[in-house]
Amino acid sequence: MAATPERGETTLLDDGxxxxxxxxxxxxxxxxxxxxxxxxxxFEASVRDHPDELALDDGTTRLTYRALAAEVERRRRxxxxxxxxxxxxVGVRVPSGTNELYVAVLAVLAAGAAYVPVDAxxxxxxxxxxxxxAGVRAVVGAGQRIDATGRDGEGAPAARPGPEHDAWIIFxxxxxxxxxxxxxxxxxxxxxxxxxAALFLVDEPIGPGDRVMAGLSVAFDASCEEMxxxxxxxxxxxxxxxxxxxxxxxxxxxxxxxxxTVVSTVPTLAALWESEALAEVRLLIxxxxxxxxxxxxxxxxxxxxxxxxxxxTEATVVACASLLTGEEPxxxxxxxxxxxxxxxxxxxxxxxxxGSGQLVIGGVGLARYLDPEKDAEKYAPLESLGWExxxxxxxxxxxxxxxxxxxxxxxxxxxxxxxxxxxxxxxxALQALxxxxxxxxxxxxxxxxxxxxxxxxxxxxxxxHAAAVERLRAxxxxxxxxxxxxxxxxxxxTSGKVDRDALPWPLPDLETAGPAEQLYGTEAWLAEQWxxxxxxxxxxxxxxxxxxxxxxxxxxxLTTRLRTRYPSAAVVDIYQQPTLRKLARRLEKSVQxxxxxxxxxxxxxxxxxxxxxxxxxxxxVVGLRWTVALLALGNVLHRFGAYPWAPTASWWLxxxxxxxxxxxxxxLAIAAGGARLLxxxxx
Length: 683
Fold this sequence. Notes:
It is globular, with a radius of gyration of 31 Å. About 35% of the residues lie in helices and about 20% in strands.
C-alpha cells in the first residue's frame, strides 16, 4: 500500500527536509513505518527496561511499572474468568482521574481483547447504544466490576494479541444519527506510538522522571496519545479528573503542583492557563481544533517544543504534525513515518503543489469502520495514486512543501471544543423531540467570539422547551446538546436539503433582547458576565447557563470573570447551581462566608510591647555582624604592622561569630528563632 516516490511528488527525507521538484503534485510521504509489534509489546518493553520507575500516579496511589504489570495481570485473569478472550470486545466505563481506568485499559489489551471506551459521565443511553453496536462481551465499570453481559456463546480463550487484532474501538459522531465505531489494530496503534517517538524531543527524549498529564476523555482518541506518551518511554502517567479539567484556569496550578512535563490538549483549554503554569512543561502538543497564532506566540519558548497535530480517529489519532515556531501560518505539517497524504480535487486527482483540495490519508495508520458499507465508502481505493485503501477526510487543506495548511471542512461535520461532531446526529436527536416538525443544527459564533451549537426547531403542539432540554441531556454527550432556537421555517436549497448557512443569526430575541424581567444587584451583574461570555442575552433569573449555550470551556471562562468580584468562585459552583438566581445566591453567600473567616482581631497592646522589646536583641545581632567583620580586619592589619587603634580577637572567636552570623545555617537559625519569639502567642 505504501506509495513509491514518482516525479511530481514531495518526499519527506530522513533529515526532515523536503525535496521540491518542478511541476510536482500534492503528495506527501515520510520514512518507513516502524517495525511490526503490538501495544502489549510496547508496554512490556518499558516494564523490562524501567521496572522500578513510576508508571501511574493518580494522587492517591503510585504504581511502578513492576507493580502496574502485576495489577494488569491480576485484572487480565479476572477478565479471562469472565469469558473474555482473544478478539473479543470489552466496554470500559470507569470514572476519570483514577489509576483504575488505565489499569482496565491495559488489562483488556493484555487479555487479547479490544477496549471500547465510554465516558463515565455520558448518559446511560449513549453507553448502551455504543456497547450494543460494538457487541461487547463484558463491561468493566467502577470498583473493578466486570459485567459479563455481552453476546452469548463460548468465546476464545484469553491470549496474547497479534498485530492484526484490534486494540481499541472508539465511536465518533455519525451523520445518520447513530455513532459510528472505528476499530484500530495493534499494528496501526504501535506504529503511531513509535512514529511519535521519532518526532518529539529527539535530542532529549521523554523518559523516567517525565510526568504526562492524562486529562482527556478515554472516549476521545487523543487519550491514546496521552497514555503511550508515558508508557512508550518509561515515564509516569498522571490522571486528572474530568471535573478538574473543566475548571480551566484552575488546572494551571495543578500542572505546577504535579510537576507535569508533557501535555497533550486542545488549544482552547491551554489558552486558559497562565504561562507560568507551563514553566516545567517541555513538550506541549495541540490537536483537535485550529490553533490560534497568538496562543503559539505566547507559549513557544526556549526549552519547550510545541507541536500542532492533525489526525482523524479513522487514521489512528495523528496523521501529520508541525513543530511550531510562533510564526504564521500555523500548519498541520507533514506526515508521520508510515503515513501518506495527498491533496485531491473533486475528481480524485492530486492538485498541484500550492493548490487546495480534500485531504486523503493512506498508509499504516488506516483504521476501519465496524459498518462494512461505511468502510467501503470512506476507505475506497484512490485509483489516481494506486492506493488500495484511502481515507477521505472531508477536510480542506492547502498543499505547501513546508507542510499542509488547514482550511476547514468540506461537508457537514464540525469541530467544537476539540470534538468532532456530525451535525446529522444532532439533527436526528432534535427531530425526535416531541412537538418538533422540523429541525437542523448549525455552529454559530456569538459576538463574544464563543462558538455555539444551535438547534433550530420548527415547533408545533406539544412543544416544551424544558422537557426537550432534559431529554437531549439524557441522550447526548454534553458537547452535542445545542442551544434551542425555535424558528418559523427552515430555509432549503434547490436540492431540498436544509441550507444551514441561511439559518438566521444572530437571533433577534437572543442577542439583542434584554431580560424579560428586571434584574438587580448580583443577578444583574451576573447576567452581564453570562452575556459577555456566551454572547447571548439573559432573559430572566431562571435561565440555565448550559441551556442557553454554555459548555465546559465557557464555564471555565465565566469563572475567571466571576473571580474579579468573588475570589472563591469555582467551576463547580456553575455546575451545581446553573440557574442565574441560584448561582447569584451562592456567590453572595461565598462573600459572607469569606467575610466571617477573614475577620482579623487587632493585636493586643501587651503583645505589641513585647514585640518591641524583643526587637532589641535582634538589632543587636545585626550589630554583631559588623563587630565580627571589624575584628577580622583588625587581626589582618596587625599581621602587617602595629595598629593600636585596631581591635583584635582570637581567630577561633572570629570563626565562630562568622559561622553563626554569616553562614546560611546560622542566619536561618537566628531568623527562625527570632520569628518564633516575635510571633509567640499570635494567632
